[in-house]
Write the structure tokens for this entry.
Amino acid sequence: MENQFIRHEPCFERILFVLTLDRKKMKERILIGEEQQIRFRLNGSQNAEVLCDMTRPLGTFLINFERDTDRDWNLYGLSPLRQALHSNRWKQPELEQAASEFLWGKYLSNDPLKMYVAFRIWNSYLLAREPRDRNAACDRFMDKMSSLTGVFHNEAMTFDRETGKPKHFQAGSLYFKGAPSENTRLDLWFPDNRRTEECVSAYASLYPLITYYLNRLNDWGLCFRQCKVCGKYFLAKSQRYELCSDKCRKAQALQNKREFDERARENNYDLLYKNECQNWRNKINRVKNTAGFPADRLEKTQAAFADFKKEALQRKKAVKTGTASPKEFTDWLYQQSDIILKLTTF
């Protein structure tokens, strides 16, 4: 199947976007191609010619769904081709090249959704060049392709932010009330002897595919979660899952060990500080009860204790911020024992 974004013989067969969901393995499989070839591939034939056959973790289609808030697909993909259909033969190559570069970049992204829409736009443009009435062909081209790219303007991964549950499809949505019947169609392929999972195929619009996906996830009780390590969203069987992959689980385990070691070091020097403070208090209380101990020396000792605590807090803060090491702090604490000993010797 020709898929270079240059002028060539267009593909006259319907190119479908087929999705199958595997709840047990938590996987999604996406195939792009002609219906017969896709059916051959689903039945195990690796020789079947398809544009894409990709298996990914369940939910990836919705999580990585293309967002086109700046309308780049229309501006750089559709608009130049629309102008080319209304231009003379000398202006067409430049306009075609501009659109081709944009669409080819999307096609090479290895994202099935972008690949499908990019291929459909270019192939539909080639088909629109066939009729004599270019104006009517251009209108049909823009209407059909706008139905495909329009889905990029909205958020596909809709779910409850507290529970993570996908939002169930509402039959009264504005899109399904006003859209042509072709744009609301989704073909369901039931399992057969060789294929155990059901498949759905979309062509005119991807809105029904999103609806089907969200409804299935909702029926299965799955929820979207955000990984606490990498920040990516993933699909989980319950809200207790917080990590998306083995890589993130290893990273979290390493971070937990570092925090444990840090707390252990902190507790060690903090314990030494508390013991040293108690040592000063014990010695001060002892000299208070010692008959004949000079009052000026007691006052000097208490002032030294206040200075000790003030400096100790500053040094502890330096250790926590990383500007000083715990060893430097503990060495300083040991030196203070000599000071209180000299002050209280009578």
About this structure: The chain is about 55% helix and 10% strand.
